[in-house]
Write a structure and sequence with these properties.
The chain has 134 residues and is of the alpha+beta class. It has a single domain, classed as RNA-binding S4 domain (Structural Genomics Hypothetical 15.5 Kd Protein In mrcA-pckA Intergenic Region, Chain A). Helices cover 37% and strands 19% of the residues. Strand 5 and strand 6 form a beta hairpin. Helix 1 packs across helix 2. The radius of gyration is 18 Å and the shape is globular.
Length: 134
Amino acid sequence: MASLPPETVRLDKWLWAARFFKTRSDAANACDLNRVTSNGHIAKPARDVRAGDKLTVRNEGGEFAIEVLLLSNMRGPAAVAQTLYAETDASKAARAAVAEERKAMAQADGFPVGRPNKKDRRDLNKFRGRIVRF
């Protein structure tokens, strides 16, 4: 007899199964760094996800505003993973605008050539909010 899909799944497992992150530990780290919200609240990795939940996920691909359609705690093919959620039109448009902006910056020679020196790295880390001491 076939088993029924679960009613709830851990958030980090679902994010991994939906292919937002390569590993489950990456998904848990994103939750710990407040890069994932569930229904407007900062989400912890063990939070239960249900069908119909609204999630906001920030990863290297951009910021996704999605609605959970199906639950899965197993990672499968990308085609199956895309059926687990529906991205909002506003989210798609915002990610496309950011991608276009990056493309325009690259064409305008907005990126420096070569590796950053120590001062450049410190400035980048400070800008990204990764610096604690300086």
